[in-house]
Task: inverse folding
């Protein structure tokens, strides 16, 4: 099956216009068929040994979201304390989650024991199952964008909060907590770029021919 030019352009459009969405969610519910398409896209991610180690815990209940938001608030205040001066001031103004506003939360997990201890492709690098689950997150994020759904990744939260709120056993790894919902618009650029927190690297600085070499620091790196 060949991808046509229009289809190719649609894929790139989806990739380049995907954004991390925090506060601009509409409460409009996500239709079942749309959600099913997005989760099916996530489920079709590549995985080591075709292990498919992920699961998706759907969170719609306000009480549960409230517990997760409370966990974020605690984690965010200790996180804020790690920045100094202007950075601290800027950090305190950032909106870094949309847990309560988003109609749906999705916790992506990884069952590291799904196919027994020996998995084709994970025999040398044990973390490959975790990477596979991150591939599922990226598929989900892009499929959601193609459905005009925003997604925001919330990592400023302790696993223990999500385990308790969502009944996730210790042996199951927590990969991501995602806030999902419709948005009225998608920003053109990452917010952290627009606010001057971190510039986008030139793609050419990430490409190395034949051997790795140190990338020139950006202005922001020099300030540190
Ligand atoms: C693994 C991981 C974890 C997080 C994020 C991303 C990823 C990949 N990002 C979103 C991140 O800030 C964002 O992707 C970049 O700033 C680039 O912006 P766009 O995603 O292109 O809009 C994110 N954003 C946020 O507001 N709170 C968070 O806790 C996190 N955590």
Result:
């Amino acid at each position: 099956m060949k991808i046509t030019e229009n289809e190719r352009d649609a894929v790139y459009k989806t990739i380049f216009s995907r954004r991390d969405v925090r506060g601009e969610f509409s409460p409009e519910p996500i239709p079942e068929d749309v959600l099913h398409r997005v989760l099916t896209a996530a489920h079709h991610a590549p995985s080591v040994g075709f292990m498919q180690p992920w699961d998706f815990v759907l969170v719609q209940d306000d009480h549960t979201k409230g517990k997760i938001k409370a966990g974020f608030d605690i984690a965010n205040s200790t996180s804020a304390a790690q920045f100094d001066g202007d950075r601290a001031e800027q950090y305190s103004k950032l909106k870094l989650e949309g847990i309560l506003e988003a109609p749906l939360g999705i916790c992506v997990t990884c069952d590291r024991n799904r196919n027994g201890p020996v998995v084709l492709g994970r025999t040398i690098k044990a973390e490959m199952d975790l990477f596979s689950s991150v591939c599922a997150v990226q598929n989900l994020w892009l499929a959601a964008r193609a459905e005009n759904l925003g997604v925001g990744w919330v990592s400023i939260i302790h696993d223990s909060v999500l385990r308790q709120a969502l009944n996730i056993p210790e042996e199951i790894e927590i990969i991501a907590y995602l806030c999902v919902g419709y948005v009225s618009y998608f920003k053109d650029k990452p917010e952290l770029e627009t606010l001057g927190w971190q510039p986008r690297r030139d793609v050419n600085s990430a490409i190395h021919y034949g051997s790795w070499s140190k990338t020139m620091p950006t202005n922001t790196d020099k300030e540190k």
